[in-house]
Design brief:
Layout: H1 16-33, H2 42-46, E1 50-54, H3 60-68, E2 73-78, H4 81-94, E3 99-103, E4 117-123, H5 134-144, E5 145-162, H6 165-181, H7 200-206, E6 210-220, H8 228-248, H9 254-268, E7 275-285
Parallel strand pairs: 1-2, 1-4, 2-3, 4-5
Antiparallel strand pairs: 5-7, 6-7
Helix pairs in contact: 1-8, 6-8, 6-9, 8-9
Length: 288
Amino acid sequence: MDASPTNTYMFDPESTAELSRLLNQDQLQTQAMGGPFAGLSETEIDGLNNVLDLGCGPGGWVLDAAFQHSEAEVAGIDISRPMIDYANARAQSQGRTNASFGVMDITQSLDFADGAFDLVNARYLVGVLSRERWQPLLAESRRLLRPGGILRLTEPIVYPMTTSPAAEAINRLLHQALWKRGYGFSPDGKTSGDGVSFYLPRLLRQSGYQAVKTMPHTLEISDDTPVWTAFYRNMEVGCLMAKPLLVKMGVTTEEDFDQLYQQMLIEWNTPGFTGLWHFLTVWGYKPE
C-alpha cells in the first residue's frame, strides 16, 4: 500500500458534507438496485465468504451487505481516513462484527493476498479513476479474486435526466470537466453519461473476465415520489461540491455556475418536476 496516497477523487474526500451526501446516495442506489447483491443468484450469494468493496466511502454498501449475508466477512477500503473512521464507528454501533474498514488507495497495489475474495464490488468510481487507471484496477481485482470469483461494478448510464434545464446544463458541464481531467471514455466529453458504463463490459472481457453480464437500474425522482426530497438534497450538495472542479477545469465561471445553481434549485421545486436516474451494474467471473 502506498504510504502517501494521492487523492484522485473529483470531490473533497475529507468533507463532512460529502460524507453525508454519499450516505444518502448509498441508500438511494441500493434501494433502486433492489439490494446490495442485485443480479447475483442465491447460490452465488450463499457462496460468498470474503467480500471487498473498493472506494467504500462511509461504508453504506458494506454494512448493507454484511447485514444481508451475516456469514460473510465484508471489508471496505477508501482513501479517506474520516470516512473510514465513520464507517468503523457505524459498524460498531450496529453490531456488524463481520464488517471491517481500512484506508487504502485503490489506484495502487492493494495489501491483500492473491485469491483473498469471492466478490470484489465497487460503485461510482467514475469520479475516482482516470481512464488509464481502469485496466490496472481490473487486473488488481482479478488478482484478489479466487478462481470463479466475481468482479461487480456499478456506474451511471446518465446523470439524472430531469425537466430542469439548469440541472441538464450542470450535468453537461460535469461531463466536460471530467473529460478534460482525463476521466471516462467519452469521445468528446459531450455525450450523455460519463462514458464509463457503456465501456465496462468490453473492459471486463479485455481484462480476462468471463460470462460478463449487465443489469440496468432506474429510480424515478419526480416531485410526487417518496425519494424526491432525498435526491434533491443529494443534488443540492453534490452540485456545490462539483463547483471547484468545474471552475478549475475552465468549463464555467463562479458567477455563471452560481446563477445556474440557483435556477436549478428553483426548477427542482417547481410543481410537475420530473426525473429519472439510470445506472448500470456489470459483472464478470475470474476463470476457474
